[in-house]
Amino acid sequence: DRLLVLGPVAGTGAVRHGEGARGGFHGFGVPVTVRLTRMGLAESARTTEAGPALPASLAVGAWLLEH
Predict the structure, then answer these.
(1) Can you give the residue range of the structural domain that contains 33?
(2) 13 in a domain, yes or no?
(3) Which residue has the higher pLDDT, 6 or 50?
(4) Are 62 and 34 spatial neighbours (Cβ–Cβ below 8 Å)?
(5) Does residue 49 sit within a domain?
(6) pTM higher than 0.90, yes or no?
(7) 50 occurs within a structural domain
(8) Which residues of 39-57 are buried (b: 16+ CB within 10 A; e: fewer)?
(9) How far is CA 40 from CA 8, 29, 45, 54, in A?
(10) Could you report the per-residue pLDDT of 12-62, keeping only the tens digit for each?
(11) What's residue 12's pLDDT?
């Protein structure tokens, strides 16, 4: 099974955010950080590759998947 979280494309090309990509709501005054992960995967098994920050729409999607 696969679940995709889609958001707007900024600029001229699409950006793929992989597992472990981080985002947050600090710019909105909310001290919450989220990242894209596989549900049910242990914290130590999650990837932590650095990459572009998630845009707000994908950060919301990541937060919804966590809850």
Answers:
(1) 22-66
(2) no
(3) 6
(4) yes
(5) yes
(6) no
(7) yes
(8) eeeeeeeeeeeeeeebbee
(9) 27, 29, 10, 21
(10) 677 777 788 889 999 999 999 998 877 655 444 444 555 678 888 888 888
(11) 64
